[in-house]
Amino acid sequence: MKHHATIERREFLKAGTATVAGTLLAPATLGQALAGDTKSVRIGSVGVGGRGTALLRTLLRMKGVEVPAVCDTNPAAATKAQQMVVSSGWKEPTLYTKGEEDFRRLMDRADLDAVIIATPWEWHTPMAVCAMKAGKYAGVEVPAAITLDECWELVKTSEATGVPCMMLENWSFRRDNLAVLKMIRAGLFGEIVHCHCAHSHNCMHWYFDAQGRPRWSGDHLLRRNADQYPTHSLGPVMSWMDINCGDRLDYVVSMASRSLGIKDQLERKHGRDHAPAKLPYKQGDIVTTMVKTARGNTIVIAMDMQLPRPYDNRWQIQGTRGLYNEQRDAVFLADSPGKAENWEPFGPYQEKYDHAMCKDAPGAIQGGSHGGTDVIELREFVAAVRAKTQTPIDVYDSVTMSVIFPLSERSIAAGSAPVKCPDFTGGRWKTTKPKFAVES
Ligand SMILES: NC(=O)c1ccc[n+]([C@@H]2O[C@H](COP(=O)([O-])OP(=O)(O)OC[C@H]3O[C@@H](n4cnc5c(N)ncnc54)[C@H](O)[C@@H]3O)[C@@H](O)[C@H]2O)c1
User: Fold this and answer.
1) Closest residue (by CA) to atom 27 of ligand 1?
2) How confident is the model over 344-374, as pLDDT tens digits?
3) Which residues, other chains included, contact 269 with Cβ-Cβ below 8 Å and sequence gap of 6+?
4) Residue pair 287/303 in contact by the 8 Å Cβ criterion
5) pTM of whole model > 0.70?
6) 27 φ/ψ sector (left φ>0, alpha ψ -120 to 50, else beta)
7) What are the residues whose beta carbons fall under 8 Å from the beta carbon of 22, sequence distance 6 or more?
8) Which residue among 48, 247, 343, 423 sits deepest, i.e. has the most Cβ atoms within 10 Å of its Cβ?
9) Helix, strand, or coil (residue 10)
């Protein structure tokens, strides 16, 4: 078994290093992704709590995807996932439940092509690094990294091994966002100069358990004051603004509001004497980050996850000839005949610019659940694993979205001082052509 793994890995790395050092593999074409190739792909599932279980359910519906190994420190969660695999008609997967480091035994298996990581944040980078070193594609939940050092570790490991690492940022695959991307590429908004985006989602149910005690995610609210969840907002903006393929994030300036929402929501739900309500949460309620890009464009990113409110992303992208506004579900196009100074409904543009990826994924526009976005992102990830090509979101894009977490923290701590964003691509952003969701 080991011998087989070594050969396979060597061939794989050969394919990976056939390109210029550091550029990794070429992206799969959309044709490859949709070709319906069902060559078996073997994926290990690491972390099968809320999100990991949802991803596993989607994976098990895909033709040719096998899950021979499941890892979770909670044996009950692992067993539940094991039963899901068996009910889908597959052989019982091996379980890895012997503590926090047991994922390493799973990564050592010779029969896995990839792993999906959906664990608490501090495990994302160690697990993805371990996967890449073992020659397995890493599909890692958001954010891929939570410190600057971790961002670099992911980049350096992916470059050294030639193995891709994709952060599973599902909002990059939303149907409306992909149509907007096509409109931008068709030049409808002219030259892009600015974008606004937000992750506005009251996540108290996710930060705290039913008794109102901080979960692992809630612990981060105690320890850090930052945009702790920047990737859902920034996901589609990456390709809209050619980040890492023509432009790059240059520096950020962040500001955090007072921290009142956690205490207020906990007290209202659990009473004034509730001990966790009295803890000193560092995290401000609303964190606003401004980004200046190398090309001179600007991005506003808002994190708003501890105040009661309906879900919202507030995407707005603006150029010299018009803009798209997600909240209004509308566009304004300066060159649209007879429409001067008025918003137009986005619906007809959605139809006209619908992306090929979405054609057979109904519900890919958000609506409470993740709709079809998980189907599209996992299908694209699996297609890349199967074809041994680059993933649609590569390691550079994964860390660029994630790095807003530590950079915003530094800026806030320094009284909103500008903080430089590293160039993870080593200058290649200048020559790399847009590759995300390019239709052939
Ligand atoms: N993309 C999305 O829309 C989305 C939605 C929700 C959560 N997430 C992300 O998914 C990840 C998981 O979140 P969740 O809500 O499922 O959390 P969760 O607490 O429900 O699940 C985490 C699981 O990981 C297990 N675990 C912890 N340490 C482990 C270790 N060392 N080895 C193996 N298993 C371990 C836990 O036992 C648990 O079952 C987070 O990174 C979160 O940000 C993404």
Assistant:
1) 119
2) 999 999 999 999 998 877 666 654 346 689 9
3) 212
4) yes
5) yes
6) beta
7) 159, 426, 428
8) 48
9) helix
Closest-lying ligand 1 atom to the alpha carbon of residue 103: 32
Domains along the chain? 2-169 (3.40.50.720), 172-358+395-430 (3.30.360.10)
Q: Whose CA is nearest to atom 34 of ligand 1?
A: 72
> Rounded CA gap, 127 and 132, in Å?
9
Handedness of CA 264, 270, 273, 275 (dihedral sign): negative
Q: Over the stretch 368-418, which tens digit does the pLDDT of each residue have? A: 346 689 999 999 999 999 999 999 999 999 999 999 999 999 999 999 999
Return the structure tokens found at 229: 């969840």
Can you tell me which atom of ligand 1 is nearest the CA of 101? 31
Q: Would you say 164 and 384 are in contact if contact means Cβ atoms under 8 Å apart? A: yes
Which residues have any ligand 1 atom within 6 Å of their CB?
A: 46-52, 71-74, 77, 100, 103, 118-121, 123, 141-142, 168, 170, 370
| Nearest ligand 1 atom to alpha carbon 119 | 24
C-alpha count within 13 angstroms, C-beta hemisphere, residue 52: 28
Atom of ligand 1 nearest to the CA of 216: 19
